[in-house]
Amino acid sequence: MMTASDTAYRADSLSPPCHHSRTRRYIDDATDVISSHEMTIEVKTDFDEFSAVCRRLAGQNKCQPITLFDPKTIDNDAFWIKGTTATGDIQHVQAVRHLELADMTLTQYWKLHRQKFRPVAKNIDPSRSIFDDLPVTSNITGSVAYHGEMFISEQYRGSGLVLPLARMAKATAFLRDPDYIIGFVEPKIAYCGIPLKYGYQHVHPNAISWYQPDTDDYYTDWFLWNAASDMAHLINQPVSIEHPHILRPH
Fold first, then answer.
1. Is the torsion defined by CA of 202, 172, 131, 119 positive or negative?
2. Over residues 102-117, mean pLDDT
3. Overall number of domains in the chain
4. Residue 41 and which of 78, 138, 167, 181 are 20 to 30 A apart at CA?
């Protein structure tokens, strides 16, 4: 079951393109799979609550949001997803924020706003961190949705829910018609095939190397991305291994 308990996230800010009805079907199918595992999903816009939830989970090293989700900077351009059991226990969170780059490339945006992508819970020196000039990030511009902050409790790990949860969030973001959806992942997670489960078509190693002064060392994030054309393809694919039917055009 999916609910929207906060002020409605305005996904349809423009007239609906032709993919919207199919995208909503995809979201509904993903939600059905999630509900079959006795998890209730809420699409929320209160980022003060999101911060509080992450602080609660951070003690278990489970949720470490980046500065991009600072509640003071968000104005109807972001949403987050909360998954709970019947007892109200939080089993899942993830978040999306829309960025308007206009004529700026993602490479330029990274370097100008590198502080926004800094993990809050880690001691990072952004000025000494390395943002690689990936060929694709020099071409990414326009409307970009950042997708991340994914947490699934141990109770649900291995259940197969990572596919419908991540893809449902990306499809919800796609309703606002971004030109790209992007994310980051640690290398050890990437090697396990998580980007594919999340529905990403493209992976670039070593996108950002964050400098940690405490250890005088770096840790690396890999870059994930889908163009709008990739998302148009994704919403015609199965939402999970439990829902193997491909959605065909009407």
1. negative
2. 90
3. 1
4. 181
